[in-house]
Design a protein that fits this description.
With about 475 residues, the protein is of the alpha/beta class. The chain is built from 15 helices and 11 strands. Pfam families: DAP3.
Length: about 475
């Protein structure tokens, strides 16, 4: 007998099936629904609409015949139709056609809206959150999904590596970005070579991954200082001209108020100087060295070959995955909660703050890319699954809604109940993982492990 949180799936290669948690099956069905709905949407976009069902055809034909019959009866009753009646019939016909089209599109829109774009796996330590991800990722790769998997985001905040602070306050991790791109290309190179580059969004990231316009904004204070210095020189020059009594130009002769005239002239000079100085600001970009990449893989390969542009290439690939509509994309992040504590890196800029001199992990370029849960809505054909991990720290009473996670997007994996633990032990016994386990000690080991899968495996593997 199986309980409500454990399911047995038949196996094609073994007489014993596969035991899965219900959260695993639910997420697998969500992935299947996501792929099916988006495959239908892409087919409809190409004009490959499937044939309607016979029942729908019969119902539509019956409604159309009824409308035509009512129109014929109206003609016989009125003894003819005038110009106004013809217009009314034409408007009703067009209205009926639009209603038919909306009725056909409404069920598909409802299915598309019902597909969720992100899930958060939560639970205590050792309940099997990583096990859920480790089952879904091979399944997605077997079904031709482009999978971006990060099992250890904590390493980017704890391992030693070179970091460089950008003008936007983001710490660039070029070596870690190269490792991320290398792992991404190891499993998805064929799919990345098939993806064309969206030219509209290519080249918008700076070296640290932030948007190019945001990076330019950090230079505005320097431009303001240069502007004020030039404007002071212009004011001194204007004052000397006024002392010498030089006349103003004819274009400004009609301005009676001299103070207003000076303010307008200075505003014109400010705009001209601002436009000149802003044109001289150049943000380094890989687009100048790789202007026309043929595929997304060329962007990733450029980042692998040039360490200075690795972080920018990683963010460019991420942005291309958001805009593409050809492949199903699965973003899987384990230890997602490790993207938010402070890192092992220290900086004087954080002295006297709540971070106590340590750089927050989400200010590092690689954890910053993985920390945003709400960017799952920006993927036109992507789904994001994150899992928490309390291996390094004690479980906290945190609020996922502050991170953009809604309540219906949380899937909690819990400890085994006594019946689930009994089935768990029986499954291990049938798989020849356990040998000669005494049935009378089942309750005793459940008490020792508390129904926790990690603790139970460690106890049973060491003793039986």
């Amino acid at each position: 007998e199986l309980s409500r949180d454990v399911e047995m799936i038949p196996s094609a290669t073994s007489p014993i099936g596969v035991m899965l948690r219900k959260a695993t099956l639910e997420l697998q069905m969500q992935l299947e629904l996501f792929a099916r709905v988006h495959a239908k949407s892409s087919a409809d976009t190409r004009g490959e609409t499937p044939l309607p069902r016979k029942r729908k055809e019969t119902r539509k034909d019956g409604e159309r015949d009824a409308r035509e019959k009512m129109k014929d009866e109206g003609k016989d009753k009125d003894g003819g139709v005038g110009g106004r009646g013809i217009e009314e019939i034409g408007s009703r016909r067009s209205e009926d056609e639009w209603r038919e089209r909306l009725s056909e599109l409404r069920p598909f829109d409802a299915r598309l809206a019902a597909v969720q774009r992100g899930f958060l796996l939560d639970g205590h330590r050792g309940v099997g959150k990583s096990c859920v991800l480790n089952y879904l990722i091979p399944w997605a790769r077997e079904n031709n999904w482009l999978v971006v998997y990060e099992p250890l985001p904590s390493r980017y905040a704890r391992e030693i590596g070179d970091i460089k602070r950008s003008s936007a306050g983001v710490y660039i991790q070029s070596s870690f970005s190269q490792e991320f791109l290398e792992r991404l290309g190891r499993f998805n190179r064929r799919l990345l070579e098939e993806l064309p580059v969206a030219r509209r969004c290519y080249g918008q990231a700076a070296l640290d991954g932030v948007h190019r316009l945001y990076a330019e904004r950090s230079y505005h204070s320097l431009l303001e200082k240069a502007l004020e210095k030039d404007l002071d020189e212009i004011r001194e020059q204007r004052d000397e001209e006024l002392k010498r009594g030089s006349p103003h130009s004819g274009k400004d002769a009609d301005l009676l108020d001299s103070q207003l005239r000076e303010e307008i002239l200075l505003a014109r000079e400010r705009l001209a100087l601002w436009h000149t100085y802003r044109g001289e600001v150049s943000i380094p970009s890989m687009k100048s060295r790789l202007p026309n990449p043929a595929s997304v893989w060329e962007i990733a390969e450029f980042g692998l070959q040039n360490e200075a542009f690795a972080t920018q290439a990683l963010y460019e690939v991420w942005e291309q995955l958001k805009k593409q509509t050809q492949l199903n994309v699965l973003i899987a992040v384990d230890e997602w909660n490790e993207c938010f504590p402070v890192s092992e890196y220290v900086s004087m800029r954080y002295e006297g703050t709540r971070f106590n001199g340590h750089i927050p992990a989400f200010h590092l370029s690689t954890p910053r890319l993985l920390s945003r849960f709400d960017d799952a809505q920006q993927f036109q054909r992507g789904l994001k699954i994150c899992a928490t991990s309390w291996r390094r720290s004690n479980r906290r009473d945190y609020r996922p809604d502050l991170l953009g996670v809604r309540q219906e997007e949380i899937r909690t994996v819990r400890n085994f109940s006594p019946l689930e633990f009994a089935n768990f032990v029986a499954y291990y016994h049938k798989k020849k993982i356990l040998h000669e386990f005494p049935r009378e000690k089942l309750d005793y080991f459940y008490m020792l492990s508390g129904g926790n899968g990690f603790q139970a495996r460690r106890l049973l593997a060491s003793l039986y």
